[in-house]
Automatic annotation (TrEMBL):
Dimer. Residues 5-303 form the NmrA-like domain. The keyword RNA-binding does not apply. This is (+)-lariciresinol reductase. Gene3D superfamilies: NAD(P)-binding Rossmann-like Domain (3.40.50.720), UDP-galactose 4-epimerase, domain 1 (3.90.25.10). The lineage of its organism: Eukaryota, Viridiplantae, Streptophyta, Embryophyta, Tracheophyta. It comes from Linum tenue. It comes from the Eukaryota. One of its GO terms (molecular function) is pinoresinol reductase activity. InterPro entries: NAD(P)-bd_dom_sf (IPR036291), NmrA-like (IPR008030), NmrA-type/Isoflavone_red_sf (IPR050608), PCBER-like (IPR045312). PANTHER family: NMRA-LIKE DOMAIN-CONTAINING PROTEIN, PINORESINOL REDUCTASE-RELATED.
Length: 307
């Protein structure tokens, strides 16, 4: 497969979606962005869509409540990248993607961009719904015979590094930090713009056809303690540290509402079990090896922005 002429991004005004649109434009793809009438008078979304239009993107009106409009939108593109919401504390609409599973695409990249759901069969309730729903979408894609690429992007840097790997925090404290367990399990942190850049590389690559690719930047495989040390170096002091045992974490989790519990389950698997870095990834499935020309942002560089 040569370079995809036309890329449709769905969820293009979202947290990751807007980066995918920008990466598509930056990489010279003919870029289509779905515009949902349901966004109504959400001025920020409209302004963002217009800014994409001014850079050459085509806005395509379509709604998940109007199947024909989705069929028409999808048929405009060679490749469909979906970044629909999948975080319960914001919104979780992963199964809506079943309406996108149609046979006329050269490639579909569904909304995943996190932990590989195929490796999370033993995940805990209630957070396993994220993985289960993403697997339902995978099965539908594969049963329909639609060519695909799945992107396992590990931890979004904004959520995990911003909060020094503590759930509920997205800005790093200059005073204290709670270490999950002893803070020694390795996580993998990726700048969201880099996730988008790698995704746009992958869609044109025959090596990633019908495969899962992992974004595992070698310098960004770090424990919470190592992340905290980088931050401490920047601020020139040691943070006061408290350790939260697994039992304490699970007890706190049980007291939260459903959406919070889903998110905490994900932190549990990453920070107490080390689910992201516990397996090896072959070079032909790892984004930084496949695309060495993309210069990824290191954790050290990313954290500097908070100083
Ligand atoms: P957002 O919450 O920013 O939402 C993305 C888009 O979903 C919205 O912009 C909107 O599209 C669309 N959407 C939301 N609700 C509806 C609805 N009811 N009907 C139709 N469309 C809707 O998503 P994120 O960027 O946070 O998440 C994208 C993906 O990344 C998900 O798969 C998620 O699980 C994953 N993720 C991974 C993380 C990690 O650390 N690895 C962290 C966070 C997310 P529109 O532009 O049309 O309005």
């Amino acid at each position: 497969m040569g370079k995809a002429n036309k890329v449709l991004v769905i969820g293009g005004t979202g947290y990751l979606g807007k980066r995918l649109v920008q990466a598509s434009l930056n990489s010279g793809h003919d870029t289509y962005v779905m515009h949902r009438p349901e966004i109504g008078v959400d001025i920020e979304k409209i302004q963002l869509l217009l800014s994409f239009k001014m850079q050459g993107a085509h806005l395509v009106s379509a709604s998940f409540d109007d199947y024909q409009s989705l069929v028409d939108a999808v048929s405009l593109a060679d490749v469909v990248i979906c970044a629909i919401s999948g975080v319960h504390i914001r919104s979780h609409q992963i199964l809506l993607q079943l309406k996108l599973v149609q046979g006329c695409m050269q490639r579909f990249v569904p909304s995943e961009f996190g932990t590989d759901p195929a490796r999370m069969e033993e995940a805990m309730e209630p957070g396993r719904i994220t993985f289960d729903d993403k697997m339902v979408v995978r099965r539908a894609i594969e049963e329909a015979g639609i060519p695909f690429t799945y992107v396992a992007a590990n931890c979004f840097a904004g959520y995990f590094l911003g909060g020094l790997c503590q759930p509920g925090f997205i800005l790093p404290s200059r005073e204290r930090v709670t270490l999950l367990g002893e803070g020694n399990q390795k996580g993998i942190y990726v700048d969201e713009d880099d996730i988008a850049a790698y995704t746009l590389k992958a869609i044109d690559d025959p090596r990633t056809l019908n495969k899962t690719i992992y974004v595992k930047p070698p310098k960004n495989v770090l424990s919470q303690r190592e992340v905290v040390q980088i931050w401490e170096k920047y601020i020139g002091k040691e943070l006061q540290k408290t350790v939260l045992s697994e039992q304490e974490f699970l007890a706190v989790m049980k007291e939260q509402n459903y959406a919070e519990q889903v998110g905490l389950t994900h932190y549990y698997h990453v920070c107490y079990e080390g689910c992201l870095a516990s397996f090896e990834v072959d070079d032909d499935q790892e984004a930084t090896k496949l695309y060495p020309e993309v210069r990824y942002t290191t954790v050290e560089e990313y954290l500097k922005r908070y100083v």
